[in-house]
Amino acid sequence: MIKVNAHKIINFGDATEATYFCLVTNSQLKDQFEINIEKKYKAYKIFSLDNADDFVALMKNDMPDNAHILVVLPSVYFKPPPADLLGGQRKLGVLACSSTPSDSESIQHFIRVAENTDPVAQDVFADRLFSLGEKTKHLLFYNKKTKTEAVFHHLYDHLSWHEQIGVLDWGQQQLLPSGEISVLPVNVFDQNIEVALDVTGELTLQGTAILHSGTPSFSPRDQQRIYEDLATLNDDAVIASLDGGHITSLKAASKKSFRAIRALEALMYTDSRYSTLLEIGLGVNTNHDLIAGNSAMNEVYGGKKGVIHLGFGLTPYTQYHLDILCPDTALYTAEKEWILGETAHLSDQIGEQVIG
Questions:
Q1: Is residue 224 helix, strand or coil?
Q2: Are the beta carbons of 266 and 287 closer than 8 angstroms?
Q3: Listed residue (203, 232, 234, 185) closest to 308, CA to CA
Q4: 250-255 average pLDDT score
Q5: Contacts of 237 (CB under 8 A, 6+ apart)
Q6: pLDDT digits (tens, 9 = 90+) for 22-57
Q7: Does residue 350 have a pLDDT over 90?
Q8: pTM of the predicted protein model
Q9: What pLDDT, on a 0 to 100 scale, did the predictor assign at position 186?
């Protein structure tokens, strides 16, 4: 059984403010859930859904008002519904489990992560991040192990910032477990994904890889094979040189990362848009435990001090979206003030060689 302690998912806010807790899941999983509402909600309801297009009808015809709604659809590619579908009497949390393989064990794991998440602490972090970001002319990435550095010019008006953090208000929705702040140079549903984030310098690609698949036809076997090559980034690093957010070269730190370079170069050869840095994500869920294997919900992992991840490709416009968690890379302001990640002593020369 997959157990859900509904009243512990603090992202929904106070359980006593709502009448219903509602779960939407695939039909084959419907009987595997055990819902505990601890007398905080008056009742719970479970709905089955096997076609994403049916979600609108479900919300309009069957979903009660004054409800906290959890969506767990590992077999359905679920797009965020329009805000007016929620109205002012519903809150929606979506477990990110369809773009990578998700079995009952991993779903249970991340429901526990969601129950243990501190969304208030995530809001505090976001406030500090944006306060520091508004005052500095650029942001600096530095890896204390490989000594790589890169500068990110982050103050452009066209950049699209997203926050999957904090406590929901009525009419709002977010991914669960929460804990990601991300920036892209495009709208997430924009087909022009050749524009890059303005990052110049060297970035160390080392850590957990996540290979999301989109809606186009694909072979799960191919997804797994590519992921296994990229998973060697856990063993050693690939150094990526970037100019204005476009990868100009890849260098293996040792023979251990040859497989990862082969996979990255194959992706870029097949679709040149994979050479574009399209996302910088900040994982700030410090209550999160990584799960082994290819799992989308690892994306919000924040370790103890927050974790940077880098994104390439964008589903559904590319076959895959690749995220690489980089826990040894830290983020600083131009004034060398620490923002996120494992701290390191920075010399006066850091950042000078990549900003011209």
A1: helix
A2: no
A3: 203
A4: 92
A5: 145, 146, 204, 205, 206, 253, 257
A6: 999 999 999 999 999 998 999 999 999 999 889 999
A7: no
A8: 0.92
A9: 79
CA torsion 122→128→134→135, rounded to 10°?
A: -160
Single-letter code of the amino acid located at 274: Y
Tokens of 258: 């040859």
Three-class DSSP category at 21: strand
Quote the CA–CA distance of 22 and 4 in Å, as a whole number. 11
**Nearest-angstrom CA–CA distance, 62 and 54:** 11
Residues 6+ away with beta carbon under 8 Å from 7: 15, 36, 37, 38, 40, 41
- pLDDT tens per residue across span 291-341: 999 999 999 999 999 999 999 998 888 899 999 999 999 999 999 999 999
Q: Kindly report, residue by residue over 64-108, the tens digit of the pLDDT.
A: 999 999 999 999 888 888 888 998 899 999 999 989 999 999 999
- Structural domain spans, the chain: 2-95, 120-354
Contact criterion met (CB below 8 Å) for 283 and 177 = no
Model confidence at 349: pLDDT above 70: no
Confidence at residue 83, expressed as pLDDT on a 0 to 100 scale? 87
Q: Give 215's contacts (C-beta < 8 A, 6+ positions apart).
A: 77, 315, 316
247 to each of 70, 120, 244, 327, how far by Cα in Å? 38, 36, 9, 20
> What letter does residue 130 receive in the DSSP assignment?
H
Can you tell me the distance from the alpha carbon of 19 to that of 65, in angstroms, rounded to the nearest whole number? 8
Residue 20 CB contacts under 8 Å (≥ 6 apart), including other chains: 41, 42, 43, 44, 45, 64, 66, 67, 68
